[in-house]
Specification:
about 325 residues; two-stranded antiparallel ribbon
Length: about 325
Amino acid sequence: MADILSGVGDTAAVRAGVGRPARTWTGMAMVIGAGVLFAINGTVSKLVLDAGLGSLPLVQIRCASAAVLFLLIATRTDRPGLRVHRDEVLLLVVYGVVGLAMAQWLYLVAIGRMPVSIALLLEFTAPLLVALWVRLVRHDDVHSRIWVALALCLGGLAMVAEIWDGLTLDGVGLLAAGASAVALATYYLLGERALAAHGPVSLAAISFSAASVLWAIVQPWWDFPADVLTQTVDLDAATEGFLGGTVPVWLLVGWVVVLGTVAPFWLVLGGLGRIGATRTGLLGTLEPVLAGVVAWAVLGQVLSTAQVIGGTIVLIGIIIAETARSQPPPPT
């Protein structure tokens, strides 16, 4: 998210005067709040998946609902940004289908097969992939510490996967999480170009709409398992006693859409305008940590000592990668 909006975020931060302490603290609070909501969303999504909805129907209803909400917001705040020119149709389609739809679906597949924190940690290696792409393919200026970041991430991921025990994590889950990192990196790279003609909110509306069309083709709405939404989840059993009572699946799905997608996106946008993209990206690395804490407390997902150490090493590598790349110029 931060890398996509880096030009807009850093420029807005400079214009607003990010040096003012109150504005800076507000921006940091907004980004951290978004990270908390995203982290909780991983556990809520896991509960929905365990209830039997499935990763494809969940991402389908998430994308469609978010598209409607973002379109309503964009028509009030950035109507000109919704205009799509003929020469950018392919870019926006790939951006929405690969960068958004596939990244979300692959992440849901991953958390259905492995701990939420590890799946999110693997997906968060996207900034490293972006920096490597910029350095090796575009031949842009990237600080040499990117190689340190690469070494740390590879070593840390080896510890997370506990390869000395013959790869303790689910193989399909690992592939899905790794592929989601590639899709997210695509989202970052294409987003830099798309933001030259569209505002962040209008771009979100367009990309979620493209993702919705894809899932409507893959799984027509008349085949959507709507009956699952009326079922209830026994929170006492699902959370090992951490929460009690029952809750309908549709309410959990509503959380995923509103508090797990639209609300944190808005908070990130607000934070970008106050503290800039670099600090937003660095604060964003709290998300895998927070997701791990939530999953441990609610779902009882406990990581081994080696996995915790490896995850910490990966986070350090991601932070280094976040600061290794020169910020792209603001779009004209």
